[in-house]
Amino acid sequence: MNKQLLKLGSLVFTVVLLGSLSSCKEDEPPLPDNLAAFEVASLGLADGESEAEVKINLTRAVSSTTTVQISYTENGIVYGEDYTTTPAAASGTLSVTIPANATTASFKVIVGDDVFLDGGETIVYTIASIESTTGVLIGETNELTFSFSAIVSEGSQLTLQGLAGAESGASAANSVFVNFRSNNQASVLRASWDLGFYSGADFRVILNNTTSAGAKVTTETDLASIGAADTVGLTLAVSQGAPAPEHFAFFDALNGSLSGTVIPAISATASDNKVIIINRGAGGTPARPWIKARITRNASGGYTVQYGTIQQTSGFTSVDIPKDAAYNFKHLSFNGGTIVNVEPKKAEWDILWSYSQYQTTFSGNLVPYNFSDIVAINIHGGVKAAEVLTSTVEYAAYNESNIASTTFLAERYVIGHNWRATTGTIGVYGDRFYVVQDASGNVYKLKFISFHPNEGGTRGRPVIEYKLVKAAG
Fold first, then answer.
1. 102-123: per-residue pLDDT in tens?
2. Which pTM value belongs to this model?
3. How far separated are the first and last CA of the chain, in Å rounded?
């Protein structure tokens, strides 16, 4: 009898448990619709450029290939005569494929060679339909006006594409450059470069602070004379567990000042330029071999870099890096010794969102530390910014009359990590926003909408909103 009761009780418990689990599953809120939409509602060609990229973003990644069909209406311009696209359009429709596990795709609009436009030409692109096995729907920004001239955006809302794949959002692999004026963002892998070479009058070389790269200058001029023995006792890295003030010596000045680079100004006297030992850092990738490098000026007015691994004794790679006045820096990757595109042109970005090296207080001392979600401004390109508390003026109310009383600073981390909390109540601070003056003199107000699941966001894909307060001139 007792055994029968036990069996009956076990059966009842199993039924109740299964019912409870089923009920819990039913009570879970369904995922929101996955929407495909243009990244922005208006886009234009940058000054002097003959092509531009139009992006389509999803709310979340798709598990299978998704095709977005886009129709378009031309105004004063003809496909195949004045411009083309990649991929090509056919019969008035453009098909864009979003690969499985991706959240974005794009197409390019390209002006033909020897085509002269007056700047008033436009194309209106419309998302007409979506072919998907996972139920992707058309989102709110389903129409985009493309102008064949530079635009001054009235403002937009952007989801920054900091994630390169399935990595943690707290260590997002991309750096994201944003240009308010053109409604544009550019995502670049943090680990895609190692050194940046200044294109201004001075000869300065920066380390990659987004991978926390560190360096030490030796007293030698011969690459072969430096080996593994010279790295004994060196870390040249941020210690997240036991950071110390003396570790600042490994890294470039956090404020971005070119006078504070670990690598001294490159001298016109070749013998003054010593061998540098470089820990490349990680940047979302496995640890990479340390490098030894020597940098000199070349006869063309640029830089020459010779480098190899720490163990290497001959056959060093040599690369010439030209200066380009359109950019703050030209960048070199030690992977293959190639010049890579990192920053947009200096007049074409305002803020940079990234994982990066910064500082914090540890045991009562200021120490270097790696930060997620940190925002820098383009100080070398002439951008300035200010933080405004809503106790002074609300974001919605801030207008041109408030500009005169706003103190703009040309400081790299005016925004920094001050816009969000990662402890306690995690999320965007609602008591502040930012005002950014770009290199052309346009003034935008900027606020952060979300960055964390606690507030309906996605770590690594923060959402920002910006609005034009005053156009230049």
1. 999 999 999 998 898 888 999 9
2. 0.91
3. 94
